[in-house]
């Protein structure tokens, strides 16, 4: 027999003669760093990647890491994130261990929400590194989100200087809310260790 089509719940076959046959859905590809997801995901293993890890490509979905680790930026290139949501609604991240895999690179962000609404970041452990401005959780233009029961350790570890002033610019941010309103931040444990300055929650 030959499969003609599959429409979610119905297979259509061309059968030339009667015989025994069976059909089943193929197993989905394993989630990997660099993926854009459009359905909810529960991890069954650790993830690791050289740059960005998971991008939300749809609304109303979640990632439950189930206690597994997501390691991002192992190359130390910087300007990358473990999780990215841009222009999304009701996208949730729970039960993750998120770690920057390299102490080099600038502007590494564990969870990066831009123009994202009514979403949850709950019960995650976040460890960032970087030479300048690592962020545990970064919200920009994002309203109505809940950040609850997260443990965040973020650090800028070098003596990088601003080329125009010569000033040390190594800094660290636990939670950064920029032009973001009506967000609920509750019961988070934050340790920020920048060699120039550190901010637990920046509004």
Q: Count helical runs.
A: 0
Average predicted confidence as pLDDT? 85
Please report the distance between the alpha carbons of the first and last residues: 63 Å
Estimated radius of gyration: 21 Å
Bin the strand percentage: 35-45%
Q: Give the tally of β-strands.
A: 21
Helix-strand pattern, N to C? EEEEEEEEEEEEEEEEEEEEE
Helix content: under 10%
Based on secondary structure, the structural category is mainly beta
Task: Characterise the protein shown here.
There is one protein chain. With 203 residues, the chain is mostly beta strands. The protein is 0% helix and 44% strand. It has strands at residues 2-6, 11-14, 36-37, 41-42, 47-48, 54-56, 61-64, 69-72, 81-86, 91-94, 97-100, 109-114, 120-122, 125-127, 135-140, 146-148, 151-156, 171-178, 184-186, 189-194, 197-202. The strands form four sheets. A seven-stranded parallel β-sheet has the order 3-6-9-12-15-18-21, with no helix packed on it. The protein is elongated, with a radius of gyration of 21 Å. The N and C termini lie far apart (63 Å). 36% of the residues are buried. The model has no long low-confidence stretch (mean pLDDT 85).
């Amino acid at each position: 027999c030959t499969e003609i089509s599959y429409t979610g719940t119905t297979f259509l076959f061309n059968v030339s003669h009667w015989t025994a046959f069976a059909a089943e859905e193929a197993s989905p590809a394993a989630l990997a760093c660099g993926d854009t997801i459009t359905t909810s995901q529960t991890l069954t293993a650790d993830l690791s990647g050289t740059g960005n890890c998971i991008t939300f490509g749809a609304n109303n979905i979640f990632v439950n890491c189930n206690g597994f680790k997501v390691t991002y930026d192992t190359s130390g290139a910087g300007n990358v994130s473990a999780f990215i949501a841009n222009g999304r609604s009701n996208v949730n991240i729970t039960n993750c261990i998120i770690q920057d895999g390299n102490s080099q690179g600038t502007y590494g962000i564990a969870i990066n929400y831009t123009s994202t609404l009514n979403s949850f970041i709950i019960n995650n452990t976040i460890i960032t590194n970087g030479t300048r401005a690592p962020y545990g959780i970064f919200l920009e233009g994002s309203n109505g989100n809940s950040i609850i029961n997260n443990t965040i350790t973020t650090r800028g570890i070098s003596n990088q200087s601003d080329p125009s002033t010569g000033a040390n610019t190594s800094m660290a941010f636990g939670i950064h809310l920029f032009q973001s309103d009506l967000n609920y931040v509750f019961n988070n444990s934050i340790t920020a260790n920048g060699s120039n300055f550190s901010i637990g929650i920046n509004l």
